[in-house]
């Protein structure tokens, strides 16, 4: 199975497509000739709008590369990627930057915040850069949701790791992007703080209708998603809806065993 | 051994980050070595010239200077009768003796009345063609001069002015104007640094330069075989008696050398001083580089400590890196210094001073001094960061990069800085309030040094304050990008402080000098307006006297109300307190000078000083020697008799024009000095009849057309000339300070480049969440501009303070008007903003080109 195109392109949600982003026959290769390494091998994928998608896979499976390509951070060797109806493959840096600024949100594993700006300034940074005024009510709701109201004037160094990631979540949510990408957003947190952040991500999908794509290798983190995509050797090898941590873990063990025998 | 290995690896791993520091060391060392090579080369060039041109023994008339400068106040060289040559020939051990006559107080013009004198300050020499000259000059075309109509010219001058055989020249001396045609061109066999030389035959030279035949200025004596120069000198002295000056070749060459040495030493030490300033600025750059490298390597150092490196080893590894940097930069610097010296020689060539690369002199001390200086300064500068590296705890290996700021050190630093600055300010205050200028200068010097150090020490604190203000004024309008630039500049105040301080030093000196310079112009202009009652001044810009023929030409110009002659000479004074002052200046002028220059008096009327056997002195002189109105002073004039003069006026001491002059009338001078020893006019003042200024100015210019060596200027021109003169001097100093400013700019580039490296992840993050390349570049540019403006503000403020204090101090010497040159200072300030933009070019470009993903993934 190399395709995850399982969702009809047109749903019933007010004329907008039900797909927030899609990849078609995406290849990402490094080097040439004998040293050629294929990170993504003709991948097709649709990301459903208003859903929480997790991408899983062992190290070197291409899961991070896929996310970076979907998010317009990395270029592809061939194939197309669309954000809503916009093809982003082939866009120049200027347009890509604007696209990331206005339509995409990011949460990285670590180092999400600028040390010179306080929490609130970090949250509104993408909008500030764009020269847009933040929607006050929305901002208040986001800040409230992630529970940071009393920490807004703090600098990142004065916040705990969990708080810092919550600020990052708030920043990603504040600009109301079409899609949020998370690159192991809880990878550096202990399980309690991680659960908190994942809880916020879940709620933002359920309550705010946000689309989220998250790369993780943690079955527990993946269990918060609506759908899990499995990558191995640059291909999508499986997917799972309504996952539980145990089911994800079993599936992973399964791949591991198959990988060893084949 | 491992220490050396890790140091080497670190050094080469970070060669890019070391590059700018190496350039700073290179530039400073190159400037020092270039200066040394250049001055050594000039010295050896002159040395060769003087050795080649001196005969074994030279006899000159009494009154000639040791170096053979044969000009006296009356515009003619001191001479001796031709019979001396015969007496010298008769002396023991003399192989040959030849009489020569030459003069340097002459001007030679071509047929179009163009002055052929060298522009670079070299002398114009007219003399008879003789056997001694034939040793060092070779006739390359035509023949030696013969008869009154012929003149021979040196090849350098001929080439410069496109002269050829048969061209008409005119030799203008105090005797008159002599016309001749070029009969030959002779070339130097050694390098001629820049004199213009013209030869006549002996009789013509005597008539043209002295006004009569049968006299010589010198006798060149050649020794017979086996006779040493000192022996020959003894014999010649024995034959002639004591009425003449007799010198061996060595003595003549030494005296000549001494003459140029003074000027060259001034140049040498001034240039070394500027090299020192560049070094000082370079120190900031090196400190910053190593501090940043140590900060970036904190985790690595922590790891080294954790696995057992001692503090000393860590400390030493940083110092070894500095040593490598110092050696590398210095070696290149020594090489570049030689190149710089050649460049300077070429530059001198363009202003008329010939130096040949064949004479290039690199003393063994030059590379040694360059290397030592470069290495020692670099290692010393790296000492503080090295110590900080030694203090890194093993725990740092586990923490995130970036050492927390030490609050206590900050407080101590602030205290020390404030105390130093305060002490400096107090010294400046003292300097501005002394009664005697001499007492104030140590305070001024101390104040300058203390306030500079103080500013450097509290730089980081000032950075925090100044950057906030600049941010509020400048950056806020650029929105979030401006805000981030401001925060970045504030992030490490110590770094911003040091970078700005480097720029501050150069700009403080620029500001101080420009304040003093423009105050000088303003004070002089102010006094000219207030005190000068004449329209035109006639003078020679090289300090030659005005010839009687030219004075006559001025006097016969129509439309003039009066002409005042002005001469200076020396005299020995015996004052009422019994002191004898040797060789002291005295000014003789026509009585109308009291109207031409309305000098203030504290007692008496200045007009009375021009009465027979009267004089004026200035207030300080009067006080020092107990002189009152009516006091008698014995004045023994040079080349003349002793006069008993009565003091009839005491002038103020604190004016710019004719400061400290003591006046008598020319008539008084003439009474005591024989006519043929009378000094010529140094200046001539002319005043037009009412309402005829413009016509008179034109008429004067055409009267002096025959004498292009004399300039006539009205008050406006004079003020402009004064301004130009000071402007030129300032420009030269600014040019030399440019070196220090360039090093400071490198410092800004360096800080930004290293900051960009340090903030790679941040930059990646910002680009990921949508900061465009253009915004990123703008952010870095603005940070750079803020740092540069911070340095400029500090520098200009400090420099203005110094300048204003210097003016207050010099007000006692006549510098009464304080003029702040706002246009210059504004230009410097705005220029600094451009410097900031320029410095950010490459760091911003590199930041913009970073790959977003790689940047985020950086550790």
Automatic annotation (TrEMBL), chain A:
CDD domains named in the record: ABC_MJ0796_LolCDE_FtsE
Record keywords: ATP-binding, Nucleotide-binding, Transport
Gene3D superfamilies documented for this protein: P-loop containing nucleotide triphosphate hydrolases (3.40.50.300)
InterPro entries attached to this UniProt entry: AAA+_ATPase, ABC_transporter-like_ATP-bd, ABC_transporter-like_CS, ABC_transpr_LolD-like, MacB-like_ATP-bd, P-loop_NTPase
Top-level taxon of the source organism: Bacteria
Stretches assigned to coiled coil: none
GO molecular function: ATP binding
ABC transporter domain sequence ranges: 21-258
Pfam family, any one: ABC_tran
Name this protein carries in UniProt: ABC transporter ATP-binding protein
């Amino acid at each position: 199975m190399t395709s995850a195109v399982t969702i009809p392109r047109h749903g019933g949600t007010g004329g907008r497509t039900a797909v927030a982003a899609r990849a078609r026959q995406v290849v990402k290769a490094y080097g040439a000739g004998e040293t050629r390494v294929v990170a993504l091998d003709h991948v097709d994928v649709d990301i459903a709008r208003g859903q929480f998608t997790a991408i899983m896979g062992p190290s070197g499976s291409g899961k991070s590369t896929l996310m970076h390509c979907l998010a317009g951070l990395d270029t592809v060797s061939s194939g197309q990627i669309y954000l809503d109806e916009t093809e982003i493959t082939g866009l120049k840096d200027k347009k890509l930057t604007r696209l990331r600024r206005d339509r995409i949100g990011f949460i990285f594993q670590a180092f999400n915040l600028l040390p010179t700006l306080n929490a609130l300034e970090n949250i509104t940074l993408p909008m500030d850069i764009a020269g847009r005024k933040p929607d006050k009510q929305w901002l208040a709701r986001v800040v409230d949701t992630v529970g940071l109201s009393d920490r807004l004037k703090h600098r990142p160094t004065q916040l705990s790791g969990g708080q810092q990631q919550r600020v990052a979540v708030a920043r990603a949510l504040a600009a109301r992007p079409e899609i949020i990408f998370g690159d192991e957003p809880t990878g550096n947190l202990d399980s309690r703080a991680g659960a908190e952040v994942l809880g916020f991500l879940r709620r933002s999908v359920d309550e705010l209708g946000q689309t989220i794509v998250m790369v993780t290798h943690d079955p527990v983190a993946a269990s918060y998603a609506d759908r899990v995509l499995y990558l191995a050797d640059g291909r999508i090898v499986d997917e799972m809806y309504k996952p539980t941590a145990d089911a994800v873990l079993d599936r992973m063990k399964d791949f591991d065993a198959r990988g060893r025998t084949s | 051994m491992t220490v050396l290995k890790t140091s080497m690896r670190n050094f080469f791993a970070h060669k890019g980050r070391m590059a700018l520091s190496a350039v700073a060391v290179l530039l400073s060392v190159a400037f020092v070595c270039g200066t040394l090579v250049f001055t050594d080369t000039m010295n050896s060039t002159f040395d060769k010239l003087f050795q080649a041109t001196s005969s074994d023994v030279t006899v000159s008339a009494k009154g000639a200077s040791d170096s053979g400068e044969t000009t006296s106040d009356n515009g003619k060289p001191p001479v001796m009768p031709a019979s001396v040559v015969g007496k010298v020939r008769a002396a023991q051990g003399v192989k040959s003796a030849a009489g020569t006559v030459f003069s340097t107080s002459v001007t030679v013009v071509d047929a179009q009345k163009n002055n052929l004198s060298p522009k670079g300050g070299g002398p114009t020499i007219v003399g008879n063609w003789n056997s001694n000259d034939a040793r060092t000059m070779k006739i390359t075309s035509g023949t030696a001069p013969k008869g009154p109509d012929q003149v021979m010219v040196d090849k350098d001058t001929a080439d410069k002015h496109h002269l050829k055989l048969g061209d008409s020249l005119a030799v203008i001396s105090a005797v008159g104007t002599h016309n001749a045609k070029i009969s030959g061109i002779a070339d130097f066999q050694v390098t001629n640094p820049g004199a213009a030389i013209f030869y006549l035959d002996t009789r013509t030279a005597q008539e043209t330069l002295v006004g009569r035949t049968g006299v010589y200025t010198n006798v060149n004596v050649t020794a017979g075989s086996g006779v040493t120069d000192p022996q020959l000198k003894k014999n010649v002295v024995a034959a002639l008696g004591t009425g003449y000056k007799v010198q061996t070749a060595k003595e003549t060459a030494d005296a000549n050398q001494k003459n140029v040495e003074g000027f060259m030493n001034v140049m040498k030490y001034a240039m070394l001083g500027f090299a020192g300033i560049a070094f000082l600025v370079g120190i900031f750059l090196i400190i910053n580089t190593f501090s940043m490298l140590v900060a970036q390597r904190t985790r690595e150092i922590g790891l080294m400590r954790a696995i057992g490196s001692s503090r000393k080893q860590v400390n030493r590894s940083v110092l070894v890196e500095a040593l490598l940097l110092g050696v590398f930069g210095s070696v290149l610097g020594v090489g570049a210094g030689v190149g710089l010296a050649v460049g300077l020689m070429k530059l001198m060539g363009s202003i008329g001073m010939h130096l040949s690369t064949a004479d290039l002199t690199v003393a063994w001390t030059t590379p040694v001094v360059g290397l030592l200086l470069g290495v020692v300064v670099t290692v010393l500068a790296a000492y503080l960061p090295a110590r900080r590296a030694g203090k890194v705890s093993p725990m740092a290996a586990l923490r995130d990069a970036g050492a927390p700021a030490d609050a206590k050190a900050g407080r101590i630093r602030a205290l020390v800085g404030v105390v130093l600055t305060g002490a400096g300010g107090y010294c400046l205050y003292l300097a501005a309030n002394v009664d005697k200028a001499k007492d104030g200068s140590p305070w001024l010097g101390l104040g300058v040094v203390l306030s500079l150090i103080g500013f450097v020490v509290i730089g980081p604190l000032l950075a925090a304050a100044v950057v906030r203000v600049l941010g509020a004024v400048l950056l806020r309008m650029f929105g979030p990008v401006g805000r981030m630039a401001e925060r970045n500049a504030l992030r490490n105040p110590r770094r911003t402080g040091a970078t700005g301080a480097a720029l501050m030093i150069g700009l403080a000196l620029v500001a101080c000098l420009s304040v003093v310079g423009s105050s000088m112009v303003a004070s002089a202009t102010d006094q000219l307006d207030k005190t000068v009652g004449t329209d035109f001044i006639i003078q020679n810009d090289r300090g030659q006297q005005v010839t009687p023929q030219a004075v006559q030409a001025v006097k016969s110009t129509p439309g003039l109300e009066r002409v005042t002659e002005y001469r200076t000479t020396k005299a020995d004074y015996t004052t009422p307190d019994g002191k004898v002052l040797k060789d002291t200046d005295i000014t003789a002028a026509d009585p109308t000078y009291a109207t031409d220059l309305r000098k203030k008096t504290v007692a008496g009327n200045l007009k009375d000083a021009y009465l027979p056997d009267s004089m004026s002195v200035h207030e300080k002189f009067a006080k020092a020697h107990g002189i009152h109105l009516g006091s008698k002073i014995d004045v023994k004039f040079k080349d003349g008799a002793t006069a008993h003069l009565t003091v009839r006026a005491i002038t103020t001491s604190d004016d710019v024009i004719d400061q400290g002059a003591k006046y008598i009338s020319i008539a008084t001078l003439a009474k005591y000095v024989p006519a043929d020893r009378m000094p010529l006019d140094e200046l001539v003042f002319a005043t037009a009849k009412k309402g005829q200024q413009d016509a008179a100015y034109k008429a004067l210019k055409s009267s002096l057309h025959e004498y292009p060596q004399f300039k006539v200027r009205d008050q406006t021109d004079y003020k402009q000339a004064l301004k130009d003169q000071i402007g030129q001097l300032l420009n030269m100093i600014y040019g030399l300070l440019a070196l220090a400013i360039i090093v400071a700019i490198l410092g800004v580039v360096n800080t930004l480049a290293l900051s960009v490296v340090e903030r790679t992840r941040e930059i990646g993050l910002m680009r990921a969440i949508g900061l465009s390349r253009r915004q990123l570049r703008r952010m870095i540019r603005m940070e750079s501009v803020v740092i540069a403006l911070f340095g400029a503000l500090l520098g200009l403020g400090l420099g203005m303070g110094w300048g204003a204090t210097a003016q207050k101090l010099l007000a006692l010497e006549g510098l009464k008007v304080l003029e702040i040159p706002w246009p210059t200072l504004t230009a410097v300030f705005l220029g600094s903003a451009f410097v900031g933009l320029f410095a950010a070019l490459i760091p911003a470009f590199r930041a913009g080109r970073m790959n977003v993903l790689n940047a985020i993934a950086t550790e």
